[in-house]
Amino acid sequence: MARNLEPLKVGRVIGDVLESFIPTVNMRVTYANKQVYNGHEFFPSALTHTPSVEIHGGDLRTFYTLVMTDPDVPGPSDPYLKEHLQWLVTDIPGTTNVTFGKEVASYEIPKPYIGIHRFVFVLFRQKGRLSVKNLPTSRNCFCTRTFAAENDLGLPVAAVFFNSQRETAARRTR
């Protein structure tokens, strides 16, 4: 399992966004049939539609919360605004996908303006259905760790991230 964490450590997701954890659930994130793997790059033009997120673990009585965040706002060299909440879904039954959950913050299309941004999907196991009550009041200056602590979510059970940067007209034509 430690091998699964190595890309998250190298990409500074563990450290900047999350504490070290042991993955216990398989989460599959795809954009238009292209699976997200740690550290791979996606062009913003490929991110316009809500991704498919499938959870393989637990059972229908186990519920999860999905957080998608950008920890590099406004830019990776000086991310003084820290995390920006891109998407938040709670009460996702195990062995299903996010469409069965409650969308608390709608999917926001990643639009990095300065540098290469990391976009992180984090999955937490809830204590029970409807247990996430402390919801964010703003997408800006979001903190995944604080959100998890306020809702007694503990450590993540799965995480994956991709990179994206501003897409120039020349890059779109390739």
Automatic annotation (TrEMBL):
Recorded superkingdom: Eukaryota
Pfam families: PBP (PF01161)
Subcellular location: Cytoplasm
GO BP terms in the entry: negative regulation of flower development; vegetative to reproductive phase transition of meristem
Family matches, as InterPro entries: PEBP, PEBP-like_sf, PEBP_euk
A GO-annotated cellular component: cytoplasm
Stated family: Belongs to the phosphatidylethanolamine-binding protein family.
Protein name stated in the entry: Uncharacterized protein
UniProt organism field: Dorcoceras hygrometricum
